[in-house]
Write a structure and sequence with these properties.
Blueprint (H helix, E strand, L loop, with lengths): L15 E9 L7 E10 L4 E5 L6 H8 L7 E6 L2 E2 L5 H11 E5 L10 H11 L4 H14 L15 H13 L5 E5 L7 H18 L2 E6 L2 H4 L4 E6 L2 E7 L3
Parallel strand pairs: 3-8, 3-9, 6-7, 7-8
Antiparallel strand pairs: 1-2, 1-4, 4-5, 9-10
Helix pairs in contact: 3-4, 3-5, 4-5, 5-6
The chain binds adenosine-5'-diphosphate and magnesium ion.
Magnesium ion binds next to helix 1.
Length: 240
């Protein structure tokens, strides 16, 4: 087949590409938490970052998610170099393109499940009825419509993490970054969360990049990228 006429056409550009990425945290020991990382993630992937505690998983996810800035290297989303955008432009970029799920759920305790899910749309300035209906849809997709008016403290850990997933997908981002999303869940609840993530990946085309050090969780990924001391150490790809 011939090459596409426009090399930057969407289908030829990875969803995420990082080149020569390095992160040295300022202060005392100056350990490179991420060093020399080159990585591409294509649309539709269901990929895990694997590595022991301290290997740089959170740092790499935070850099890809533009929550933190690299010391060196470049980060491209959909072909756009976002590395040196200012803080306002990055906030806009994240609100449009990314969803985040964290180990500790990070829900706002005084808001109901529905209001938590609406929150990214509030930040985007969406109108009340649009927000409400998108948040209801997202809660439905994670199987929690019946809990919409409960506050997080009345929900189980698994339910809270489902609310966090609903919040991550409510604005229909291309990419969800999930840092050890099952680490606070028992194995059965964690497996159910992975079922949900897989379904969103398969049926709604959401690309997932998640981290874990748990072999049971990693076995669910279609591609596993191994990190050790801040460096990539090969990867495994599972046949579909
Ligand atoms: N904010 C920080 N300041 C200084 N060092 C940090 C900070 N966050 C992480 N580190 C260090 O960077 C390395 C990678 O950490 P991290 O990305 O959290 O790894 P992982 O998520 O795989 O456990 C570790 O040596 C850790 O101690
Ligand atoms: Mg971590």
């Amino acid at each position: 087949m011939s090459k596409p006429a426009h090399p930057r056409a969407t289908e030829s550009v990875p969803l995420v590409e990082v080149r020569g990425l390095e992160k040295i945290y300022p202060g005392g020991t100056k350990v490179a938490a991420v060093r020399g990382v080159d990585l591409k993630v294509e649309r539709g992937e269901f990929t895990a970052l694997a590595g022991p505690s301290g290997s740089g998983k959170s740092t790499l996810l935070n850099l890809i998610g533009t929550l933190d800035r690299p010391t060196k290297g470049d980060i491209f989303h959909d072909g756009r170099n976002v590395t040196r955008l200012d803080a306002d432009a990055l906030a806009d970029f994240r609100l449009g393109a990314l969803g985040f799920v964290f180990q500790a759920y990070n829900l706002i305790p005084v808001l109901t499940a529905l209001e938590n899910v609406e929150y990214p749309l509030v930040l985007r300035g969406a109108g009340a009825s649009e927000r409400r209906s998108a948040a209801h849809d997202a809660l439905k997709r994670v199987g929690l419509e019946a809990q919409a008016h409960r506050r997080p403290d009345l929900l189980s850990g698994g339910q809270q993490q489902r609310v966090a997933v609903a919040r991550a997908i409510v604005h229909r981002p291309a990419l969800v970054l999930a840092d050890e999303p099952t680490a606070n869940l028992d194995s059965k609840t964690g497996a159910a969360l992975l079922d949900l993530m897989e379904e969103l990946n398969r049926e709604h085309g959401v690309t997932f990049l998640f981290s874990s050090h748990d072999p049971a969780v990693l076995s669910r990924a279609r591609r596993v990228v191994h990190l050790q001391d801040g460096e990539l150490r090969g990867e495994d790809v599972r046949a579909r």
